[in-house]
Design brief:
It is a single chain. The protein has about 550 residues and is α+β, with helices and mostly antiparallel strands. It has a seven-stranded antiparallel β-sheet with strand order 15-12-14-13-17-18-16. Strands 5-6-10-8-9 form a five-stranded antiparallel β-sheet. Strands 1-2-4-3 form a four-stranded mixed β-sheet, sandwiched between helices. Helix 1 packs antiparallel against helix 2 and helix 12 packs antiparallel against helix 13. The structure holds dihydroflavine-adenine dinucleotide. Dihydroflavine-adenine dinucleotide (FDA) binds next to strand 3, helix 6 and strand 10. This is FAD-binding PCMH-type domain-containing protein.
């Protein structure tokens, strides 16, 4: 990251003013006027690409660039007053200051993958602070560490690591375009989960700008705040600029396979069996299952893709599978050996030779979707699985899927309170429920959302209870929201907070109350402050 002169800091603000003529909202005008007054002595305007208002021709393309869920692209979706894309960290405190003074929300966006669009949508007047220019990645292969800025994508992180070493990796997500800013702050997991835990488990330092505009690192922010930002969800505590991460060892060769039985090929029985064993496999072995309906000319059926990576060669994998999961019938021809970086491409569905695609910041297949998550602590009986298949035969489930990701391994050993992410020992696996639909069905979005809610209701007897746990990175506003305006009681926030964080929610609230007592950084599911917006008893 380069450090800017004062003129470039102030030019960003003048730009906002210069672009303001078409603004209609009072809040907008006040915000801009405030900036203008604050910096009226400066005339340098040279950063033309940092600020976008609705009357700027690039506003819509910048807004849409990172949007990963088309549900939030309609005309009716509330739009930001301004999008600011700072280039230097010293520009950000000014934006925080002006937004605070004018009571305007800031939505912080890194990769824009939030399932409910919270990084770029708000019902009340807001600006987007888009960290798209914060994408530096510095890998120190000798020390096995890296500094990665929040706007970088995890694909680029994997790519930069592989440039320096093919035997180092990092345990983060599967989709290369996911942004580091939101992903690490919500946990972040992928195919190395059972061996090395979450991305957030492997963060060793961070830089954040707090509500007072101070730039802090681990030492100056203190261990409470450092704990909170590793899994407590983005957007509650400040603007996270960058993370220092610990890289992990991966072998020169890993093995991958995908076996895809249908119901006619015993998929139900195989999934049923997998539930008993997948969390107890050798931790070098990760087998997840993606379940979808497939329609052939004769009939529709359900197909389960058992997709796997083993951190070792095929010669070791085959006897291991024979011992632990012989029912799957794995044979040598099903397996391919490759480098770990190639396995990233394999899991993401790209040709394994095309490493450069990891540097792409946008994914080709952006759709309308709604998702939910669940944790499974006791195997679901076969008749329970068959009930899921019945729902998959409904019309709305044409492009629905569930993804079952095994836990166990190191996830059983890390304590529930080590970081805010609490879903550790006792969980066999996590389910992600997803339903997608296309542009032509946009007017019928409610039908698809109702379908996934039916699936979620159906799952209730089979998944975790008290609380019915959920993963914050699979954001779901159905499970509870704050009041964006006015007060939110403790009991109201606790409804969603305990699902994501269990008892860690209370510590998150204590940290929030200390570092942002006025509850400036807030959204529909941000951690509330005890002082400003709610009371422990729920009384206003
Ligand atoms: P985005 O920019 O939308 O931010 C998400 C939240 O964090 C918002 O509330 C935002 O304000 C806040 N935030 C972002 N940057 C911040 C910053 N610098 N400082 C403070 N707050 C900040 N998850 C997973 O664990 N494993 C996986 O394999 C995948 N795969 C996947 C694929 C696809 C296609 C999608 C759409 C999503 C996933 N996810 C995932 C979920 C993903 O981890 C989750 O959506 C992350 O929050 C995305 O982070 P972004 O920075 O991209 O989102």
């Amino acid at each position: 990251m380069n450090y800017p002169s004062i003129s470039s800091i102030t030019s960003i603000l003048f730009l906002i003013l210069s672009c303001s003529s078409a603004a209609s909202a009072d809040e907008h005008d006040n915000f801009l006027e405030y900036l203008s007054n604050k910096f009226k002595n400066n005339t340098s305007i040279n950063n033309l690409n940092l600020v976008y208002t609705p009357n700027n021709s690039s506003y819509t393309s910048i807004l849409r660039f990172s949007i990963q869920n088309l549900r939030f692209t309609s005309e009716l979706t509330p739009k930001p007053l301004v999008i600011i894309t700072p280039e230097h960290e010293t520009q950000i405190p000014h934006v925080i200051y002006c937004a605070k003074e004018n009571d305007i929300h800031i939505r912080i966006r890194s990769g824009g993958h939030d399932y409910e669009g919270l990084s770029y949508v708000s019902e009340i007047p807001f600006v987007i602070l888009d960290l798209i220019n914060f994408d530096d990645i510095t890998v120190d292969a000798e020390q096995k560490t890296a500094w990665v800025e929040s706007g970088a994508r995890i694909g680029a992180l994997y790519y930069r690591i592989s440039e320096r070493s093919l035997t180092l990796g990092f345990p983060a997500g599967v989709c290369p375009t996911v942004g580091v800013g939101g992903h690490f702050s919500g946990g972040g997991y992928g195919s190395l989960l059972r061996k090395y835990g979450l991305a957030a488990d492997n963060v060793v330092d961070a830089r954040i700008i707090d509500v007072n505009g101070k730039i802090l690192d681990r030492k100056s922010m203190g261990e409470d705040l450092f704990w909170a930002i590793r899994g407590g969800g983005g957007a509650s505590f400040g603007v996270i600029l960058a993370w220092k991460i610990k890289l992990v060892d991966v072998p020169e060769r890993v093995s991958v396979f995908t076996i895809s039985p249908t119901l006619e090929q015993n998929a139900t029985q195989l999934i049923h069996r997998w539930q008993y064993i997948a969390n107890n496999f050798n931790r070098d072995l990760f087998i997840r299952i993606l379940v979808r309906r497939v329609n052939s000319s004769q009939n529709a059926t359900i197909r389960a893709e058992f997709q796997s990576i083993f951190l070792g060669g095929v010669n070791t994998l085959l006897p291991l599978m024979q011992e632990s999961f012989p029912e799957l019938g794995l044979v040598r021809e099903d397996c391919t050996e490759m480098s770990w970086i190639q396995s990233i491409l394999y899991f993401a569905g790209f040709p394994i030779e095309s490493r450069e695609v990891l540097l792409n910041r946008t994914q080709p297949n952006v759709r309308y979707f709604k998702a939910k998550s669940d944790y499974v602590q006791r195997p679901i009986p076969e008749y329970g699985l068959e009930g899921i298949w019945r729902l998959f035969y409904q019309q709305e489930a044409d492009e629905a899927e569930i993804i079952l990701s095994p836990y166990g391994g190191i996830m059983d050993e890390i304590s529930e309170s080590s970081i805010p992410f609490p879903h550790r020992a006792g969980n066999l696996y996590k389910i992600q429920h997803l339903v997608y639909w296309g542009e032509d069905e946009a007017v019928n979005s409610d039908r698809y959302i109702s379908w996934i809610r039916r699936l979620y209701s159906y799952m209730a007897p089979y998944v975790s209870r008290f609380p019915r746990a959920a993963y914050i990175n699979y954001r779901d506003l159905d499970i509870g929201v704050n009041n964006n305006e006015g007060k939110t009681s403790y009991s109201q926030a606790r409804i969603w907070g305990f699902k994501y964080f269990k008892i860690n929610f209370d510590r998150l609230v204590r940290v929030k109350t200390k570092v942002d007592p006025g509850n400036f950084f807030r959204n529909e599911q941000s951690i509330p402050s005890l002082y400003s917006s709610w009371t422990k008893t729920g009384e206003d």
